[in-house]
Write a structure and sequence with these properties.
Blueprint (H helix, E strand, L loop, with lengths): L13 H18 L1 E5 H20 L2 H10 L3 H14 L8 E8 L6 E7 L9 H17 L1
Antiparallel strand pairs: 1-3, 2-3
Helix pairs in contact: 1-2, 1-4, 2-3, 2-4
Length: 142
């Protein structure tokens, strides 16, 4: 029987599942929109919404709990500064999951999970900055 089972197992052990969710949450906070499978997106939604609620609390204990769950300090910083201010008046429902079709290789359902009031420029911003930095270093070396 499946009584009192709150989350999907995602066909992983507990540690691997927690690591997957924390990495997905970190990517979602950083880029504010990611594309993943539908099952992972549905499992990620309550995980991220609880983290955003921690960010809205803003106290030291909440920050330590977020640091324990997210692997990148930059994501925690963005969570407590930008996203907490953005969702200050909202009482929940910080993310949305939209079905996107099927993946070509294994026909898995694909979905886009994004923050409701997302900044469009946040998607890929870190990658653009990294490429610009690498090009500048290459130009200086040559």
């Amino acid at each position: 029987m499946k009584h009192r089972i709150k989350q999907k197992k995602l066909n992983r052990e507990e540690g691997h599942r927690n690591s997957t969710l924390s990495n997905l949450a970190c990517s979602l906070i950083e880029h504010e929109q990611i594309k993943t499978t539908l099952v992972k997106a549905k499992a990620l939604k309550p995980y991220v919404e609880k983290l955003i609620t921690l960010g809205k609390n803003g106290d030291l204990a909440s920050r330590k709990r977020a640091l324990a769950q997210l692997p990148k300090k930059e994501a925690v910083q963005k969570l407590f500064s930008d996203l907490a201010d953005k969702f200050k008046t909202r009482n929940g429902g910080y993310t949305r999951v939209m079905k996107f079709g099927h993946r070509k290789g294994d026909c898995a359902d694909v979905a886009i999970i994004e923050l409701v009031d997302r900044t469009v420029e946040a998607k890929g911003k870190a990658d653009i900055e990294r490429l610009a930095k690498e090009r500048a270093e290459a130009a200086n070396a040559a």
